[in-house]
Specification:
Layout: H1 16-19, E1 30-32, E2 35-38, H2 40-52, H3 55-62, H4 66-79, E3 85-88, E4 96-99, H5 101-120, H6 122-130
Antiparallel strand pairs: 1-2, 3-4
Helix pairs in contact: 2-3, 2-5, 3-4
Length: about 140
């Protein structure tokens, strides 16, 4: 017979309502013809490079190949007037990559536009959420 004192304390129930709470995500894309010049995936990749200090580590953290990450960054560089990532040579870590001033500004502007849109549309977003069925 199991010892009642050995039983685990009851775990709080996960709120199904919070698990299915609606989430709003703006997906801003700038296109040049059929080509996506700037979009959420590229911004996320730039942020990962900024945090990791290398394209390899950023790609790994995002679950993509180095080649795919490099191609996205190369395409982004071709769409802009100035490069967004530059190589860093030497040092204790043996080098890596970092965002240029253009890359930093691109991320800042993109995230600012998202935040501004979210605030400007706040009432409409809440009204839209109100139309959703409850889980």
């Amino acid at each position: 017979m199991p010892d009642p004192a050995a039983r685990k304390a009851p775990q709080p129930a996960t709120s199904q309502a919070s698990e299915y709470a609606p989430e709003v995500r703006f997906r801003l894309r700038l296109t040049q013809g059929a080509r996506i010049a700037v979009g959420p995936g590229r911004i996320e990749l730039l942020e990962a490079v900024r945090e990791a200090g290398s394209i390899t580590a950023a790609a790994r953290g995002l679950g993509m190949s180095y080649r795919r990450a490099w191609m996205l960054l190369d395409d982004l560089n071709r769409c802009l007037r100035a490069p967004v990532v530059e190589s860093v040579h030497g040092g204790a870590q043996g080098g890596g990559s970092r965002l240029t001033d253009t890359g930093l500004e691109l991320v800042r502007l993109y995230r600012h536009i998202e935040q501004t849109a979210q605030r400007a549309c706040g009432e409409d977003i809440e009204a839209l959420k109100g139309l959703l069925a409850r889980p």
